[in-house]
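Please, structure for the following, as tokens.
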Amino acid sequence: MSDHFDLVIVGNSAAGLQAVRTVRKHNDKLSVAIIDREDCPAYSRVMTPYFIGDKIPREDLFIVDKSFYRQMSVTPLFGQSVEQINTGQQKLTLTDGRQIDYGKLLLATGAEARSLTLSSERAQTLRHMADAEKLARMIGSAHSITAIGAGLVSLPLLSHAASGIEKHLVVGSGRVFSRVVDAEASAVLEEHFRQAGLQMHLQDDVETITEKEQLHLTLTSGRQLVTDLLIVGKGVTPNLDLAREAGLQVNDGVLIDAHCRTGNPCIYAAGDVAEGKDFITGKPTIQGNWVTAVEQAEIAALNMLGRVCTYEGSLKNNITEVFGIDVAAVGYCQDDAARTVTCHNRATGRFRKVFLNDKDRVIGATMIGETNDAGCYYQMVRTRSEFPGEAMLSGSYRYTDILQRLE
């Protein structure tokens, strides 16, 4: 005999939490279960580098506590993974053998960190709480750290590690944050990172690892590095096996329509596992950011409740702080935009680059230094606003004027 729930959510992060909140905002009668492989309440992955670097305690990682699920009348099935989806019978099989019947299903299964083919106990990825706890134990005794990949895992981890540790960054591409910002912004950041003591090895990779008292790394360039810990930040791969085996259509992610629904009318997807329309290009994409996960989950939840609504598309929206400097990228940030406008104050470190289409509408923006205007740029992209002028980039434009334009 199996348990039955009107709605089942697989995944307990940004998308899963937003789906729960949206459902309960509109309906307190439906039975809801949330399934996740990690046996703990939802926590912030982007904050784990602060915990690993001993900047915050572990308990500060949690977004909600156990009482949240009780208050929302949600049945948490934690420490469990879904082994199989039977779409014909609308049934899930869990790792412990239990079977769960569902009326509607939301897949918010996220992604897994890419690992190296070269293995070592001291070569670690960061994706789950267990990874963070292990890295926190290892980094405390490290005198030298090397990270592979210059993205939103490697750089924050290096940044928040103790200042006395020797830090190396090995980057396969020619620049840092290549998937987040354009080349001009990368150059600004690289200059700052070097001044902060980071040793960068661009257009290079780890060829071999020899494990002795320390890790001895041979790079493609022939350079030798000796390090205590190797952080692998080579990006993530969406968790697609479950969807693929269930016969859902997948590409880079699980393909969803404007209702955040898969090809199966009872199954929806949101977050890092979902591939849907990009707001700017209209092409299918995976944004892999918190805001997109929340937006998609809300649309999915409303449609699961029968409140038909559509999603206009996702936007890049990444904000982080590394080596004491804030970085934000919103929307389309590529130099093939019709026009770009840049303002860089080297005295203050404030950098702004705005990307415009052929109608002079804002389609993206990169911010370095303080990033308080990131929300304004996000709304300007969403509302297809005209660029208000270069005064906005220098910081002399009043945000109240911008907000009036958006009303």
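The chain has eleven helices and 25 strands. The two ends are 54 Å apart (CA to CA).
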